[in-house]
Amino acid sequence: MKADLSGRVSLVTGAARGIGEAIADRLAANGSRVVHTDVADAARAAQKSPGGVAMTLDVTNPSQVQGIIERGVDEFGRLDILVNNAGINTLAHRVTIDEYPREAWDPILAVDFLADPENTYAHGHILTVDGGWTAGYAREF
Fold first, then answer.
1. How many angstroms separate the CA atoms of 88 and 102, rounded?
2. Diameter of the chain by CA atoms?
3. 1 domain residue, yes or no
4. Phi and psi (nearest 5°) for 70?
5. In 3-state terms, what secondary structure has residue 56?
6. Would you give the end-to-end CA distance of the chain in angstroms?
7. Per residue in 76-135, pLDDT tens?
8. 140 is a domain residue
């Protein structure tokens, strides 16, 4: 898909690999300045994007999220697009749901289900594109 995103600044969570990296690459290919965030390895992915920036971010930590938002606005003067992509996918526990260890659920729920809406609603002035969970929620910045 082609769109003119020249002059726009996008922040992608979970951008170090997989779907997040592909989204960040596509945003950059369409002209957006992209902030790649992840808990690790965001720098490698950001190196591929013209003007790409890497920032370490744990989406379950509200103060880190606030800091990244503020830093992005301070450095670029704006933040237009937030892609809530961060998620946990583990191959460690490929078992039926009744056999899945309880302690493994907490980080998955914190990242996959709680962080996206909490972070979006806290910063609702950002256009959110995340597959429908909070898609279309935007306000003037």
1. 15
2. 49
3. no
4. -65, -45
5. strand
6. 25
7. 998 888 888 888 776 666 778 788 788 887 777 777 666 766 566 555 544 444 444 443
8. no
